[in-house]
Specification:
This protein is globular. β8 (183-187), α4 and β9 (215-218) form a beta-alpha-beta unit. By secondary structure, it is of the alpha/beta class. It has 18 helices and 21 strands. The termini are far apart. It is 36% helix and 19% strand. The strands form five sheets. It has a six-stranded mixed β-sheet.
């Protein structure tokens, strides 16, 4: 008898119970084993939503409706495995214990708990130990005379940060009880980063060989504010990839388990990948002196671009925005943001740029901004701040009897632009898109409530050198949407005469490598100097990074495309003693 596996890679808004129910109802009566992602019944990550009484009540009512639906289904040769929450409640109805589980949908009977997630990740964006109770048992599930081992997401990985290894324990039990499995099923909600795909494949091959059976990996799709889930579900048998679902799209595919065959061999030793030990490894090419960031391949650039466009559209859709506003400067970052949005803009969406030159803005900035918007057909509002700037300066002299100069004068210009940008946003209902990059965020090279404003940051996880790398990729693939003059000119905020970024900062190829060492948590000052950087340069960058934590704490959500990013997974106290950092 054939055993058909149906992989349902779903895409839902958190707690959209009606939509979730409709998707599940479509499989009724279709023979085979239907697989849905981790926490399919709610979405992920839920954070404190799992603790809120209105959410709990709504979820339990939905679950009961689903259970009754399953009981009414005619018995047949089909089942569904799906992720969901299981609550244990006290008398008042508040949770005593919450578990992240796999449910079996049994037609004619209802829903049954099969397995509880054993490894609760508690690093970077994850804080599952705050919410969930861990499971303690392996589960071997039988369907259609086939036996499957069950895992949930993190359970497929091993790390010294965890006290146990579910895969090892499952393998031991199989040997002790002479259990032969037809496959290992992993229901996941695994976030995207630019290196994650290859880590998943490597680990899945390793486990397929270890268990001498196919590894079935099912992931969810969704943009949850900063965190992106890319799908990319697959079936791996030994070294061979038998089935792969789309990335950043809902998708469903089926496979006959009997056709998934491979030549199995002894499993190689596991090398840590998506674990605490490997997660923050600095992405540096230390073969050069000084070290430089590892450059993205074209495939990696394509992944990052798709992730940014997906995350942007998800945030806009889920928050009800169809109009978007970008402050164009004639520089690289704002041009990149405009290009990224333009390339994924939908028919019912509008994009507008606003150019706000100061007395220090060059004619070239004006020409390049106009050229880019004209070639892409994007409306450009021209709004000089010269007279507003002058009025504010005169008012301050009149009130405080002294002029403001230097950094104060630069910041006033930036904040005037932020004010005008949001005034226009209020007029049109447009969502303001931030244009800062990761290098600027790391060293505080932005003005609070000025160029740091925005509802969402597209480039906040890209160092400046990576912005240029992605720009060159876009130029080659999409017929040069960014004027060449923008890419070729030196970076400048144009807030004072003849200003260049490198007047205040090291060249970006060195700055970004130093920052990657700092932000990986794996390198201290001495180790970074050991990669070929001058001590005074490292000290300067470290000082800038440490003293601008307060700015990052007030920054907008950042689309996460790296294993270590500012934002949701970056939790750093603002107030702290800094001296230890300079001696490490």
């Amino acid at each position: 008898m054939k055993t058909i596996l149906h992989l349902h890679q779903t895409h839902h808004t958190l707690a959209d119970f009606e939509s979730i129910f409709k998707t599940l109802a479509q499989i009724s009566g279709i023979d085979g084993l239907h697989l849905f992602p981790e926490l399919y019944l709610t979405g992920y990550p839920l954070q404190d939503l799992v603790l809120q009484r209105p959410f709990i009540d709504s979820y339990l009512a939905f679950f009961e409706e689903l259970n009754l639906w399953a009981k009414k289904q005619k018995a047949g040769n089909w089942r569904a495995l799906l992720g969901g929450l299981h609550y244990e409640l006290e008398e008042s109805g508040l949770p005593v214990k919450i578990r992240n589980v796999i449910y079996e949908v049994i037609p004619g009977e209802g829903l049954k708990i099969l397995y509880t997630k054993r490894l609760l990740p508690n690093y970077d964006i994850f804080d599952e130990e705050k919410y969930f109770a861990a499971g303690a048992q392996n589960t071997f599930y039988e369907f259609n005379r086939e036996i499957f081992g069950l895992l949930i997401c993190e359970d497929m990985w091993t790390s010294s940060v965890h006290d146990l290894d579910p895969c090892h324990l499952m393998h031991l039990e199989m040997k002790e009880k002479n259990i032969k499995v037809s496959g290992i099923i992993n229901l996941s909600a695994s976030p995207f980063d630019v290196a994650k795909k290859h880590k998943r494949f490597e680990r899945a091959r390793n486990l397929s060989l270890l268990f001498n059976s196919p590894f079935i990996y099912l992931n969810r799709v969704g943009g949850e504010d900063e965190v992106l889930f890319d799908g990319g579900s697959f079936v791996m048998a030994g070294p061979k990839l038998h089935l792969e679902l789309k990335y950043f799209e809902a998708d469903s595919k089926s496979i006959d388990l009997s056709l998934v065959k491979s030549e199995y061999e002894e499993a190689p030793a596991f090398k840590p990948g998506n674990t605490w030990e490997g997660l923050f490894s600095p992405q540096l090419d230390s073969a050069q002196t000084p070290a430089v960031l590892k450059s993205w391949s074209d495939d990696e650039c394509a992944e990052v671009l798709k992730a940014l466009q997906f995350g942007f559209q998800e945030y806009a859709r889920k928050n009800g925005f169809k109009k978007f506003l970008v402050a164009l400067s004639g520089g690289m970052d704002s041009a990149m943001v405009l290009a990224i949005i333009h390339l994924c803009l939908k028919k019912d969406q509008d994009l507008e740029a606003i150019y706000m030159p100061s007395i220090h803005s060059s004619p070239l900035s004006t020409q390049l901004s106009e050229k880019m918007c004209a070639s892409l057909g994007i409306p450009l509002a021209y709004f000089p701040i010269k007279f507003l700037h002058s009025a504010v300066k005169n008012a301050f002299v009149s009130q405080f009897k002294e002029p403001f100069e230097g950094l104060t004068d630069e910041n006033v210009q930036s904040r005037l632009r932020g004010t005008l940008l949001y005034t226009r946003s209020n007029q049109t209902g447009a969502m303001v898109i931030n244009t800062s990059n990761k290098s600027e965020l790391a060293v505080g090279y932005s003005t609070q409530y000025g160029d740091s404003v925005g509802a969402l940051s597209l480039l906040g996880d890209l160092y400046k050198s990576e912005v240029y790398r992605l720009a060159r990729f876009i130029q080659e693939k999409y017929n040069s949407p960014i004027p060449a003059g923008i890419i070729e000119r030196g970076p400048s905020a144009e807030l004072r005469e003849n200003q260049l970024d490198q007047d205040s900062l090291p060249p970006y190829e060195r700055l970004d490598a130093i920052l990657e060492g700092i932000l990986s948590y794996r390198l201290g000052k001495k180790q970074i100097i050991g990669l070929g950087f001058r001590e005074e340069e490292v000290t300067k960058v470290l000082n800038l990074y440490l003293k601008t934590e307060y700015k990052r704490a007030q920054f907008c959500p950042i689309l996460k495309v790296k294993s270590k990013s500012f934002g949701f997974g970056y939790r750093m106290p603002i107030s702290k003693n800094l001296s230890y950092q300079f001696n490490s």
